[in-house]
Amino acid sequence: MPSPLTWAGFGQWTFLAAAFAFLLLTGWRWERRRSDRTGSARAEITAFTLTAAWALIIAGTGHETLVGQLFETLRSLAWLSVAFVLFSRDGRHTSVAPIRPVLAALVFVEMLQLLLLMMNLRYAGNAVAQGMIFQISVLFRLLVATGALVLVHNLYAGAMAQQRVALRWTCMALATIWGYDLNLYTIAYLSHSLPVELEALRGVAQIAVAGLLTIGAVRGRSALRFSPSRAVAFQSLSLLVIGAYMILMVGAAQSLAWLGGNASQLAQLGFVFVTTVLVVAILPSGRVRGWLKVMLAKHFFQHRYDYRAEWLRFTRTIGRASTNAPSLHERVVQAVADITDSAAGLLLTQAESGEMVLAARWQWPTADVPAEAMSPENVAFFEKHGFIVDLDELRAGVDHQGERHAVPQWLVEEHSAWALVPLLHYDRLVGLVVLGRPPVARKLDWEDFDLLRVVGMQLASYLAEHAGQSALLEASRFDEFNRRMAFVMHDIKNLASQLSLLSRNAEKHAENPAFRADMLITLRNSADKLNALLARLSRYGGSGTERVEDIDASEVIRTVAERYNAPGLMQVHVTHDAPCRVLASRELLEQVVLHLVQNAIDASPDGMAVFLQANVDGLYGSIEVIDTGCGMSAEFIRNRLFKPFVSTKPGGFGIGAFEAREMVRSMRGKLEVESREGLGSRFTVRLPLAAAQGLIESIQGDSDSPGKKVA
User: Which domain of life is it from (predicted)?
Assistant: First the structure.
């Protein structure tokens, strides 16, 4: 028969195991406290923690110490609070009148244990008093166990049928706690002492309680499929490692003690020194801990993503091509956002000058994106590294590969932005997806980065293929247009020749001087216009520039406004017309402004005004055409506005905006567009100032010289 010492040793190990089990339950329950809808998280965490502390104290000091009895009282009060919370789930704590008085009575009886502890301290040397206090304490614990078992019975028996499934295992755990206490303290009351065997087996009962609670939690959540979160798994693994380390240390120390003598002391000192050096050198290293975490997650835990389901959803999103489906650019953003459960996103693509501009929005109308979303220098960083940026880490000061200088400031200040995913196609940056913050924020890990990187490359190939198809279609349309224009140019050339001949004959043969003079002016103007048209058409597709002169942009906008403003009807308003001398062709500039004003009028409701203004901006003068019409989307501006042969007007040729931009470029200027759907549009024509011509030419000469970097 085992000796009391053997039972005591067995009890220590069982209580240590019980403490470990309840610590695991505490960590697991803490991780899921936010998703708990029953309101029992706080009570359960408190009960698990106090039970773990009580088991550790019992393992170290035994049942009869004052500290052990104090923590047993705290543990019992915590489990009573759990029972009350379980009653309150369906409101029975208010509808069943005896529950509150019974709970209050049990709490009062259990609190009397504190008074008995103080009496134990007061009569520490009196054996008779100690025996009497022990019997009273055991009697009180019997009362609490009996009343608690009655509560557990009422809790399960009074629950509705669908609630019993959720309560079954928890009620079994509570019944195990107080049922074992009832038997233990009944024997203790009769024998005037706690039996050593039952004290030791009490730890086994606590382990069983932890198992029942675990089964109940698993059944209530995932139909017996135990799938803890990654954080809990790592915490549990850490506790297992610590426990294994403690067992190893105890075993090693015991083995060394068998050596005896000085050899034992030297071996113990050496073992302690080596293990201490290893722990101090390895554990504080963040790189080592991070590497271990990633390796363990990759090889020991189930993946977060169901890759088959993700691929099917990705394919369905990208493959949608119905008439009501969003554009490809919007579907690209949605495909990436679906992976991380992001609520919104943006797509930035490369413009002709190398900078990144907004190409599409997906459920993010409030994001304020500048006209140049990212400079060409920062684009080079993402092409080189292909780095997925966690913007929360960036805001916290983490800088892995120098991405702090590559991410534009507007993205850092946009706190709804969560991550930046580059789309690379053969080491060329095709686009950048800005992901909005998901409803449940979390930290991106290695699995997110791997999946986003693969999806980004796949989406980049789709975008590159789409751009290639658009370029081929545009080239074929240009070819057709050039064939048609060859006939048009031939006819116009013949007409110009005839008009020129008519003009020369009229100079020789017209008899009426007044008629001759009027005819000459008319014919000469017509011929000049036709020749100018021929010259402009012949330059399309070339790299030539228009002959420019010093003109006043304010006079141009006033002239255009007069053409549209009839007496009593003001359609076009000039809001700012200070002198603004620019280098331009007056005829071309008037034609550009006329086209922009006409488009603004067409896009505005009847009676809405269009505004013109001329300003000086640094080395450039600007003409702004502003309307409050229907506006344009980022996708339309990016993919359709300046594309030839694409028109939203019935019977339109679709070359007006393209022609206006080419005219501005031929005068060494640029045409910029800002627009919001439902708010209106702003077209800005920027041309070099006449006074800054020398400075601009010197800057361009320096940038074109050898050894200089062209911006």
Answer: Bacteria
Give Cα 96 distance to the centre of its chain: 48
pLDDT above 50 for 711 = no
Name the burial class of residue 22, with classes exposed (0-12), middle (13-18) and buried (19+) by CB atoms within 10 angstroms of its CB: buried
Number of structural domains found in the chain: 4
- Matching residue, tokens 């930290």: 443
Quick one: how many helices (H) and strands (E) in the chain? Answer: 23, 12
Residue among 387, 358, 360, 363 nearest 373 (CA) = 358
CB 333 within 8 A of CB 362: yes
Q: How far is CA 346 from CA 243, 303, 338, in A?
A: 48, 28, 13
386: left (phi over 0), alpha (psi -120 to 50) or beta: left
* Rounded Cα–Cα distance for residues 348 and 372 (Å): 10
Do the strands 572-577 and 610-617 form a parallel or antiparallel pair, or are they unpaired?
parallel
Considering the chain, what percentage of its residues have pLDDT values greater than 90? 16
Picking from 302, 325, 345, the residue at the C-terminal end of a domain is 302
- Reported as half-sphere exposure (CB side, CA atoms, 13 A), residue 132 has a value of 7
pLDDT of residue 461: 92
Q: Which two tokens stand for residue 138?
A: 């055991």
pLDDT band for 541, please (50, 70, 90 cuts). Answer: very low
CA dihedral 279→285→286→290, nearest 10 degrees, is -60
Q: Are strands 620-627 and 610-617 parallel, antiparallel or unpaired?
A: antiparallel
DSSP 192-231: TS--HHHHHHHHHHHHHHHHHHHHHHHHHHHTT-----HH
Contact of 74 with 54, CB cutoff 8 Å: yes
Secondary structure letter of residue 98 according to DSSP: T
Asked whether the beta carbons of 643 and 565 are under 8 A apart, the reply is no
> Is the confidence at residue 436, as pLDDT, over 90?
yes
H or E element: which one contains 346? Answer: strand 345-350
Query: Are 403 and 521 in a shared domain?
Result: yes
- Residue range 525-544: mean pLDDT, rounded: 59
Q: How far apart are CA 595 and CA 591, in angstroms?
A: 6
Among the candidates 174, 197, 226, a domain finishes at 226
User: What is the predicted pLDDT for the residue at 227?
Assistant: 44
The answer to whether residue 709 sits within a structural domain is: no
**Domain boundaries, position 215:** 4-226
Segment 671-694 mean pLDDT = 89
C-beta neighbour count of 671 within 10 angstroms? 18
Return d(Cα 158, Cα 234) in angstroms, integer.
Answer: 39
> If pLDDT is split at 50, 70 and 90, which confidence band does 337 have?
very high
For residue 390, what are the β-bridge partners?
A: 419
Q: How far is residue 196 from each of residues 4, 192, 469, measured CA to CA in Å?
A: 7, 13, 85
Share of the chain above pLDDT 70, in %: 69
